[in-house]
Each structure stands twice: as C-alpha cells, then as structure tokens.
Specification:
Length: about 625
C-alpha cells in the first residue's frame, strides 16, 4: 500500500514538476532553467511560499498555478495532491481541475473568433444566428452578442437547469438553453446582471454558426491549435479522479448543465497557453487563434455603469488595481475555485486553481501573492473625505435587494430571496458620509460626483441610478441592487406571515370547534349566510394548507425518483402544485365579497363579522405574499 505524503513533501515534489513544465512550455531546452536565463526574478519562490501558506492555513488539498510575464511562460506548477487522491501529487501538465466560471473565458474566446472572422456581428440580434432557440421578443431592442458578453441582456437570473447531481442527467446544450428560457425584464445594455444563461446562449450561438456541438467547436478552434490536449467540456472526464477504478460519479455530485458557463475541466499546463494567446496578440507557440485586433477588441471596455467605475471587457471583468488595469474572470463549483487574470499592457497574467473545502481562500492566497508581483499597488495617498452632505441625501437611504430576487418572474424568486445574497442597508451619517451595511460588513463612502461614491479606504466605487427622477438602484461594482419598500423586507414579511397565519387558522380550526360546541350544548345555529361564508373562507385557508402539503409531497416524490433534484430541474408536472393556492386565492376573493355584503346588510352578530373579517384579512395577506413571490399559477 502506498504511504501518505505530507503537504510539505507534496509541495517540494510538485514544485520540481512545475519547474520542468515551465521549461517545456516556454520552448527552452531542459538544460536551461528560468533562473539561468534571468527571466524568473524569484517567481518560483514567490508562488511556492504562497502555495505553502495556502495549503497549511486553509482546508485545501491541492493547487495548480500558471504565470506569464512579458508574454512568456514564467512558471507552471503543481502543489499538494490531486482531487480525492492524497498520494498523487498535482502535476501542472496532467492534473485535471474544475474551473467553474473560468470556463467562460474559453467560451468568449470562441465567440470572438466568429466576430474576428466576420461570421457574427456583435451588435446584431442573436436571433439572426441561433437555430436551437429563439430569444423572446419584447418591447425592447433585440439582444445582441455584445449584451451577452457584458451580462447586460436584460434577462432575469435563471437557476433551474444550471447543474445536476449525476452526469447521466446532463442535457445537450440546445435543450438546456431552450428550456425555462428566462424572461426579459429590462432593455438590453441598461443594467448588469451576471447570469450563466448569457454564456450558455453564447455557446449555443457558437455551435449553431459552426454547425457542430459547442464542445467540438471549441476543441477545433481553441484547444487543438493551442495544444490544450487535456482540456474538455465533457461532464465527467475520468482524469478528474485517480485511475484506480473510482468513477467520477462516485465522488462528485455537481455537473454543469450549461457547459459554456461552468463545465470546463483543464490543467495549468493547458491554461498557460490560453494566457499566452491572450497576451501575445492571439498567438501561442506559433499558433494563432485570434487576430491581434480581435484580442485588443476582446480586452477593451465594452460596458461600464459609469466611466469612473470598473466595467466589462468582452466576457471579462475589469479590475482596477492601483494604476494597473486587469481583465479577469473567477470561478467556483463545489470543492474547486479558480482565477484567470490578465494585465494586457505588460503581457502578464496568471491562472490559479485549487480544490478542497476552502479552495476559494487557498486560491486567493496565491492570486494575491502573484498580483503583488505583476501588478503592485503603492500604499498611501490621500483618501476622500466628505465636504458636504450628498447632493440627494434624503433619497438614498433605504434597503436595496439584489436584482436576482427583485426582478425574478418565476417561483425561483423565493429561492434567490432566501438563499442568495444579503440586502444592503443605506444611510447618511451626520458628517455626510454614506454608510452601507450588508450583513456584518459596514462600509463608508464619500460622494465624488452626484450619485457616485468612492470608498473611504479603497478605490471601490458605488453608484446610484436614477429612474424617472427617483433613485431606484444601487450598483456596487457590477452587482446591482434594487430599492425595496418596507413591506418587501423579509423580516417584515416573516412577522406578517406569522400573524396572518395564526389569524387565518382561528377560522379554519375555530369555526368547526365552535359548531361542535354548539351542538354539544344545544345552542342555536348561525345564519345560513354566515355558514356559507365560513365554508368559502375556510376553502381559502384550506388552499394554503393544501399548498404546503402538496409542495412537501412533491419534494419527497422528486427526491425518490431517478432524476434531477427539484432545485436543479423541476419536472413539468410540478407547476400543477401552484394551481392549489390559486384556487384558494379565488375562494378568498369570493369570501371578501361575502364579508362585505354581511357588513353592508348588518348580517350576523358584530363579533362574528369582526372575526370573519380578521380571518379573511389574514388569508388575503398570505395570498398576497404568495403572489409577491410568484407562487400562484397566474
């Protein structure tokens, strides 16, 4: 039986492998090391120390790193052990990692190839090029490739269909993008909203124009020319786990159902070639995949909410780091985290990927160390201070919720509202500083232009947008939040739902008990009109109870089936569950009318009318909440 290796032994072993890979990838003979040619300047020791800190300080098993400086490969290295393989060291040219949304770099590169070849106009409607799916038409201008690449197509966020738990459930891309097509909720180009669907749709566009599958298209036009022989969009490549008979499906329960957005498996040795292609005008090892003009186009700014804020290149995020401008993309899936970052002006870039429970922290430890080298930031300098109150101070305060929730038109709205992101509370301090609170994070900002604020400690910018004379949105970077009213707050709705449910149940439970008590004691019966009204109101309350029961049974049923989970991909029949509360809502509307008639005619006793009104009011509140969260079949 092989003996287990310590992290330090892994580190030393895999660093040696990485050094050898550097030589091979840079086209030097094996007798020439980077140190001997004077090109390294200590990059190997910088990365090795950072990798050692990352693996010792965080719960991560392994890392792979690639660095390019001045357009040439400076380092590729592996550190720690391979995924689920404690006795197998990470090898930069061999060890597969999942890179999550860094997959989009390959996707947008393939899309830019079509623009470069004049086969696609980035400003034309994507419907001109798509065969497998049609983007819904709306009272807006058409969605173009440039909108997809800058995450500004105006789609709601779609979570369903992003991933599945078993590779057998992964669908063809054409089926995935044409099922549960997201609603268009705003004009394209107006507001950023990061979605996997945008990249998935761009991938299908590549496939339709090329006339072959997305994976085959990228392999033929990007991977093969660059010699990226270990890169694949297959959902469960065997190389992800050791060749000891272990199946990927036995140790992994996340598989991308939108491969262009998050389905790439690759190595550091492969990704260093993609780095070079982006930093050398489209060429790596003598093979060209893009013209120099197309690379420049891909790296230029295509969208920004304000000229002083970071924005989007073509599929890549801008990041200001001191005086340096980076274009980058990060990514993560369960157990993996990755970063792909370029500084085009100096021909420098990095790729870092890690695996383990704290993969994101481990990855960032190494990324920060490399960026301190290729894009150093000088400390110090004057920070902004408020000179007066913000120009529209009275209009800024309030709570802002992510547009992922606020603009969702499906029942997924509740999932996003409960599970994704915390709202941002905004207030203006007495000294004119804008204060934002998000969870435990408290930040202070100073207005530098009307509605534009700069962080008091960093260069981060925050922008409020004006819609028809009213402040409607807050943008922190490219993360958009919509202003919500007091009654839209989850805490307020929670208390309202609790009070309304208790009140409604006093009718559903209390009326039958009171009727039974009267029979026991021999008391008189309520007027027939009151009995009918209570039956109708009870049906409304019962619709809520049945909805809870039906939803629970549906969840249990789907869990026991050999199919994707309810969260990943609900079955078509699941929509029938929402018919139950819809019928209950109709009954409640009838109950409102019956109650109004009883008050108008002074029927029943005063106490009976008051109690009936309270029960119906509570039921109306509950159905109002269901409507707000898109849980009615309307």
């Amino acid at each position: 039986m092989p003996t287990s290796l310590s992290r330090r032994r892994f580190l030393s072993r895999s660093t040696a492998v990485g050094a050898g890979t550097v030589v091979a990838a840079s086209g030097l003979s094996r007798a020439e090391s980077n140190a001997e040619t004077g090109r390294d300047d200590g990059i190997e020791s910088v990365v090795e120390r950072a990798a050692e800190r990352a693996l010792s300080d965080h719960d991560a098993g392994g890392l792979a790193v690639a660095v390019v400086e001045d357009g040439d490969v400076a380092l590729t290295g592996g550190y720690g052990h391979a995924f689920r393989s404690e006795d197998v060291p990470v090898r930069a040219d061999e060890t597969l990692f999942r890179v999550g949304s860094v997959s989009k770099v390959a996707t947008w590169t393939a899309a830019m190839q079509l623009v470069d070849a004049d086969r696609v106009d980035a400003g034309a409607s994507v419907n001109d090029y798509l065969d497998a799916v049609t983007v819904p038409r709306a009272d807006y201008e058409p969605v173009a490739l440039e909108h997809l690449a800058t995450h500004t197509p105006g789609f709601e966020v779609r979570g369903w269909g992003d991933a599945v738990r078993d590779p057998a459930y992964v669908r063809p891309l054409a089926e995935s993008v044409s099922t549960d097509v997201p609603t268009r909720v705003r004009p394209p180009g107006e507001l950023p909203q990061y979605t996997n669907y945008a990249a998935a749709l761009a991938g299908q566009l590549v496939a339709d124009v090329r006339g072959r599958s997305f994976g085959a298209s990228v392999e033929a036009t990007v991977f093969d020319p660059l010699g990226m022989t270990n890169s694949t969009f297959r959902p469960a490549p065997s190389g992800l786990v050791p060749a000891d008979g272990t199946a990927v499906a036995d140790v992994v329960d996340f598989y991308s159902d939108v491969a262009p957005a998050s389905g790439l498996h690759t190595t550091a040795g492969d990704m260093v070639r993609l780095l070079q292609a982006h930093l050398n005008g489209g060429v790596a090892d003598g093979e060209r995949i893009l013209s120099a003009d197309a690379v420049a186009e891909m790296h230029r700014r295509w969208y920004a909410p304000h000229e002083r804020m970071d924005g989007m290149a073509f599929g890549l995020f801008e990041q200001s780091r001191g005086d340096a401008r980076l274009v980058r993309h990060g990514g993560s899936v369960p157990s993996f985290a990755a970063e792909f970052s370029l500084r085009p002006e100096t021909g420098s870039g990095l790729f870092v990927v890690a695996h383990g429970p704290e993969a994101s922290d481990a990855k960032q430890e190494v990324v920060d160390a490399i960026l301190d080298r290729i894009a150093p930031v000088e400390s110090g300098g004057a920070r902004p201070t408020p000179s007066a109150m913000p120009e529209r101070a009275d209009e800024l305060a309030g709570r802002y919720r992510s547009v992922n929730t606020a603009d969702n038109a499906t029942s997924e709205k509740l999932v996003f509202g409960l599970l994704t992101g915390q709202p941002i509370d905004v207030r203006v301090a007495d000294d004119g500083t804008l204060v934002t609170e998000q969870g435990d994070s408290v930040d202070r900002w100073v207005e530098v232009e009307p509605l534009l604020f700069e962080h008091v400690e960093t260069d981060e910018m925050l922008l409020f947008s004006d819609d028809g004379g009213e402040v409607s949105h807050l943008l922190r970077g490219l993360s958009a939040h919509e202003r919500i009213g007091y009654l839209e707050r989850l805490s307020v709705q929670g208390w309202l739902a609790t009070l309304a449910a208790v009140t409604a149940l006093t009718g559903l439970v209390g009326w039958p008990l009171a009727r039974g008590w009267r029979r026991v004691r021999g008391g008189g019966s309520p007027p027939p009109s009151a009995t009918r009204a209570r039956w109708v109101a009870g049906a409304g309350v019962g619709g809520l109870v049945l909805f809870v029961v039906a939803t629970t049974l549906a969840v249990v049923a789907v869990t026991t089936m050999d199919r994707p989970t309810l969260f990943n991909r609900p079955p078509e029949w699941f929509e029938a569950v929402f018919v139950v509360p819809t019928l209950g809502a109709v009954a409640t509307l009838v109950a409102v009318g019956l109650g109004a008639r009883a008050w108008h005619r002074s029927e029943w006793s005063l106490g009976a009318r008051v109690h009936y009104a309270l029960v119906v009011a509570g039921t109306v509140v509950l159905y109002g909440l269901l409507h707000y969260w898109n849980l009615l079949a309307v």
